[in-house]
From TrEMBL:
One MF term in the entry's GO annotations: (R,R)-butanediol dehydrogenase activity
SMART domains: PKS_ER
Biological source species: Xylaria arbuscula
Cellular component terms per the entry's GO annotation: cytoplasm
Protein name in the entry: Enoyl reductase (ER) domain-containing protein
Family matches, as CDD domains: butanediol_DH_like
Keywords in alphabetical order: Metal-binding, Oxidoreductase, Zinc
Enoyl reductase (ER) domain: residues covered: 8-352
Organism placement in taxonomy: Eukaryota, Fungi, Dikarya, Ascomycota, Pezizomycotina
Coiled-coil annotated residue ranges, if any: none
Length: 357
């Protein structure tokens, strides 16, 4: 079968001679249809971030590079393991929650698998991935798509679940004011999820023209550009002179997290969703003054996936306009990874049609 394999920084190859995975009794074998490229994929492509190095196999998969990429994907069930019969049928359209966890550590036993002490992700750390002709996945992490949700939109369930998880941890109430730092795919998905909480103001902070435009379309009531606007002053001006109650940082820049802490009102909350490639200096007085708090939101839970799929099915969430390009496996490096790195101004979410040659 074909699979897009990672061999090292900026060395991704489409291989045509890999064996198909066996479908074990507890698994479902899936033929991926659509797969998204996200910031984690870009960091892996450019720097090797998250990929198990050759001398350090991942503790759950035992794999090192080369590994198959793709963790935001939808597909069709082609085989059902004996233990999953009754839950799935051949032909079901599904999406995959790509967490790899041990199931034995205290966080796993407490039901917070996203905090597993050996946490990994399918499509980054082994176990196959969505950028392949076939992948076998533990049935408990496979979710059916409603009939009215197209498979390309289904590939956006994973990033939306990241946003849903962050919004849940932010404890946003009706009529609250919220500022979103960064309007990339996760930031835009966060705007879409926040709208369901019926806030008063959603303030988006972004520099990309296309992403600013989409933020406004999706429901941001105020869109600020930190190159042109005093973000802290404008946030206070829009929110009773004291700032928003909640900030969600999706940008992952030292300036954005510091601005978020300064912009929120006393006893406000900052939720960090972004991943960081290196340590940053941080002024904790920006939290101490005003008794502000900061927390983190990492990936998602099964409940987050279920809630996103339900919201897509009942029409509460609409994210099709986040898709700015569709490409194919043979062209994914040039039209996917490199486009997102070199033409960030033009793109938000690029999807790969895995079925096309």
């Amino acid at each position: 079968m074909r699979a897009l394999r990672y061999y090292g920084p900026e060395d991704v190859r489409l291989k045509h001679d890999l064996p198909e995975p066996e479908c074990l009794p507890h698994q479902v074998k899936i033929k991926p249809s659509w797969c998204g490229i996200c910031g984690s994929d870009l960091n892996a492509y450019k720097y090797g971030a998250g990929i198990p190095f050759k001398d350090t196999p991942h503790p759950l998969t035992g794999e090192t590079w080369p590994v198959t990429l793709g963790h935001e994907f939808s597909g069709d069930v082609v085989q059902v393991g004996s233990q999953a019969v009754g839950s799935f049928s051949v032909g079901d359209r599904v999406v995959v929650l790509p967490i790899l966890c041990c199931g034995q550590c205290i966080p796993c036993r407490d039901g917070i698998e996203n905090c597993c002490t050996s946490l990994g992700f399918l499509g980054l750390m082994g176990g196959g991935g969505g950028l392949s002709d076939f992948v076998a996945v533990d049935a408990q992490y496979v979710f059916k798509l409603p009939d009215n949700v197209p498979s390309d939109i289904g590939a956006l369930v994973e990033p939306l679940a990241v946003a849903w998880h962050a919004v849940s941890k932010a404890h946003i109430a009706a009529h609250d004011d919220v500022v979103i730092m960064g309007a990339g795919p996760i930031g835009l998905a966060t705007i879409e999820c926040i709208k369901l909480r019926k806030p008063r103001n959603i303030i988006a902070v972004e520099i990309s023209l296309e992403r600013k435009r989409l933020a406004a379309i999706l429901g941001a009531t105020v869109v600020l550009d930190p190159r042109e606007d005093d973000v802290v002053a404008r946030c206070k001006e829009c929110c009773d002179g004291v700032g928003p109650k909640v900030a969600i940082d999706c940008a992952g820049a030292a300036s954005s997290i510091q601005t978020a802490c300064q912009a929120i009102r006393p006893q406000g909350r900052v939720v960090n969703v972004a991943s960081w490639q290196q340590a940053i200096p941080f002024d904790f007085n920006s939290l101490l003054i005003g008794e502000k708090t900061i927390t983190a939101a990492l990936s998602y839970s099964k409940e987050d996936f279920e809630n996103v799929i339900k919201a897509m099915g009942d029409g509460s969430i609409h994210v099709g306009n986040m898709i700015t390009r569709k490409t194919t496996m043979p062209r994914v490096v040039e039209e996917g990874f490199q486009a997102l790195l070199q033409e960030k101004e033009k793109h938000v979410k690029i999807l790969v049609d895995v079925r096309l040659a």
